[in-house]
Design brief:
Shape: rod-shaped
InterPro entries: C1q_dom, Cerebellin_Synaptic_Org, Tumour_necrosis_fac-like_dom
Subcellular location: Secreted
Structural class: alpha+beta
CATH topology of one domain: Jelly Rolls
Keywords: Coiled coil, Secreted, Signal
Largest sheet: 6 strands, antiparallel
Order of helices and strands: HHHHEEEEEEEEEEEEEE
Main location: secreted
Organism: Daphnia magna
CATH class of one domain: Mainly Beta
Length: 420
């Protein structure tokens, strides 16, 4: 560094000696002065004093120039150091900014990736939201279907409970009828044996009696028996109005007095045959009126009026009735509908069968059975019929083949009054 500085100073001094500075071209005056100075130097060789003064002036001038130059060099160095320092700071700032820029570019890339990921996540969330909405709709439909199924099951359970109760009642009725028939069979057999014994007694009495008169008909009283010659008091069978009667005849009354007669009961009773079976051939949906029937299969005893739907009991006794029909509902938005049939006796309901229908749209072609079976004790003249009290969009389904709705009944046993 010092070596370069001496070289620079030497160059400057040389330029000064020759009247030039580095980077400056000498002016015309400076060239003339330098030339004058040199010429003067040549002419003053004979004058040493003047030459010395001139040299001294030159040296002073050189010293001043060197001092100024040193000052300028020092200033230039300071400025150079300042600019170098600024350049280094600038370089550091440039490097820092470059790093910042690279970081920002990296963050920008990461932000773009994050934005892209968020867009994908947003799309996934939208799809998930749509899927959840669809799932909620499906759950709502499933819940509605479950409610419908629950209502169906409740209706079915109620129908099954009702059917079970009806079957239990029918079973009890069948057991009662069976027991009654067994008792009736036993009683009939006992009566038959008793009748056979009485017939044998009558035959024996007839052979021992003094038969003197023939009245030309079956004896209908103790008086008739007396007319044909019976004189021994006892039990006899006589012909009543519609059946054979067992009577006690007391032939000990005085002559001319009527024979004492006591009714014991009936023997060999033949119940009047009562049986009917009617059918429908048309749909029916009226309410609170007896159901009429278009076809009569049998009506023994003439007790059933098919046109009015009413049965009139001809005699006092126990009757059995059975009704079977198919019910159908028209299409409707109603969640629950009902249809029933009721068995009436003299205007009072005695039995019911009911159908509850759920979701008529889904089951618009579905038919369900309605069944009634019961035994009733009727007086002569009592009236029995079947009618609907609840319709609610339903009707009895039938067609021309009459295989859907039937009503039948028959006399199980005629009740016979006995007296002693």
């Amino acid at each position: 560094m010092m070596k370069h500085s001496f070289v620079a100073v030497f160059s400057v001094l040389t330029c000064i000696v020759y009247g030039q500075l580095p980077g400056n071209r000498p002016s015309v005056a400076q060239s003339n002065a330098a030339k004058f100075s040199v010429d003067g130097l040549h002419y003053t060789d004979e004058q040493p004093q003047l030459q010395n003064q001139f040299v001294v002036a030159k040296i002073e001038f050189l010293e001043m120039t060197v001092a100024d130059l040193a000052l300028e060099l020092r200033s230039s160095r300071i400025i150079t150091d300042f600019f170098i320092k600024k350049q280094r700071e600038t370089n550091r700032k440039v490097i820092y900014l470059a790093n910042k820029l690279a970081t920002m570019e990296k963050m920008e890339n990461e932000w773009a990736e994050a934005k892209s990921s968020l867009t994908a996540v947003q799309a996934d969330l939208q799809r998930t939201k749509e899927s959840l909405g669809q799932t909620l709709n499906e759950l709502a439909e499933t819940k509605s279907s479950l409610e419908i199924v629950k209502t169906d099951l409740l209706g079915t359970a109620e129908t099954l409970t009702q059917t079970r109760n009806e079957l239990g009642e029918k079973q009890l009725l069948i057991e009662a009828v069976k027991t009654h028939l067994e008792d009736f069979s036993t009683d009939a057999m006992a009566k038959l044996l008793a009748l056979e014994g009485k017939i044998d007694g009558i035959a024996t009495t007839s052979t021992t009696a003094d038969v003197s008169t023939n009245i030309g008909r079956l004896p209908g009283s103790c008086e008739d028996l007396k007319l044909i010659g019976y004189t021994k008091s006892g039990l006899y069978s006589v012909m009543g109005i519609a059946k054979v009667e067992t009577v006690y005849c007391d032939f000990t009354a005085p002559a001319g007095a009527p024979v004492l007669q006591k009714l014991i009961g009936y023997q060999d009773v033949k119940s009047k045959l009562v049986y009917f079976y009617v059918q429908k051939t048309q749909h029916y949906s009226s309410s609170f009126v007896p159901i009429p029937y278009e076809r009569t299969i049998i009506n023994s005893g003439g007790a059933m009026d098919a046109a009015s739907g009413r049965f009139t009991a001809p005699v006092k006794g126990t009757y059995f009735f059975s009704f079977t029909g198919l019910a159908q509902f028209s299409v409707s938005n109603a969640p629950l509908r009902a249809f029933n049939v009721m068995l009436y006796r003299n205007g009072q309901p005695v039995a019911r069968s009911q159908l509850n229908e759920v979701n008529g749209i889904a089951n618009s072609n579905y038919v369900s059975p309605l069944v009634l079976q019961t035994a009733l004790t009727l007086q002569a003249g009592d009236k029995v019929w079947v009618q609907s009290d609840i319709v609610d969009g339903g009707y009895l389904f039938d067609n021309n083949d009459a295989r859907c709705t039937h009503f039948n009944g028959w006399l199980l046993e005629e009740e016979i009054a006995t007296s002693l």
